[in-house]
């Protein structure tokens, strides 16, 4: 049995991993799907003070209070940012990291630094127009490539706002994450910026303990193709031996 910790992306919650978590549990594994502060079922905790550092603490606390060790830690989209930060403190509890079409910062980089000025400007405008200047309103499932009507309705009924600070706040140290065994999965078409993908491809070419794979499905792969995502997560267990 392996423990999987699945961290969602922006404006989502632990709920989005339900199809994958169900499959992993059916295979005999233990699964945690923490919801980051202010999102999903914890939306009532959203304040203008919630930022990236808060979400790093959420992940670290999950590992500490659940006594998780030798885990597969997965970050999707924005979730890759707090996962990268948390590894600075919990790397010894993580067997391998899996970055699912995720943002992966270097030390001192924010989400906006990764995304670039135009995308950052658009997010700030959304917050100004519909989020009182400090939160980004929920997005439609179509933005994440979810087109099946049933799946889209399920996603849209659960999407919540994202604190703007979580995208503006610079990452703390990330050196341990960039040296830790892992797998990067690019969803085609990816929602990540080309330079971000180039960095991860370059790492995979140089690091024998890091792999780069392409999955032909939407950005919200855990919803659109949970079977493929589950298979990839199970394959990631072999990376440490490599």
Q: Give a quick account of the main beta sheet: strands, pairing sense, barrel closure.
A: 6 strands, parallel
In N-to-C order, the SSE pattern is EHEHEHEHHEHEHEHEHH
Radius of gyration, whole Å: 16 Å
**Adjacency order of strands in the biggest sheet:** 2-1-3-4-7-8
Class by alpha and beta content: alpha/beta
List low-pLDDT spans.
none
Report strand %. 15-25%
Helical proportion, percent range: 25-40%
Shape field:
globular
- In whole angstroms, the N-to-C terminal distance is 20 Å
Strand runs, count: 8
Rounded average pLDDT: 96
Helix count from the secondary structure assignment: 10
Which features does this protein show?
242 residues; alpha/beta; 6-stranded parallel sheet; globular
Summarize the structure.
The protein is of the alpha/beta class and 242 residues long. It contains ten helices and eight strands.
Describe the structure.
The chain has 242 residues and is an alpha/beta fold. It contains 10 helices and 8 strands. The chain has a 6-stranded parallel sheet, with helices on both faces. It has a two-stranded antiparallel sheet with strand order 5-6. Strand 1 (3-7), helix 1 and strand 2 (30-32) form a beta-alpha-beta unit. Helix 1 (18-26) packs across helix 10. The protein is globular, with a radius of gyration of 16 Å. The model has no long low-confidence stretch (mean pLDDT 96).
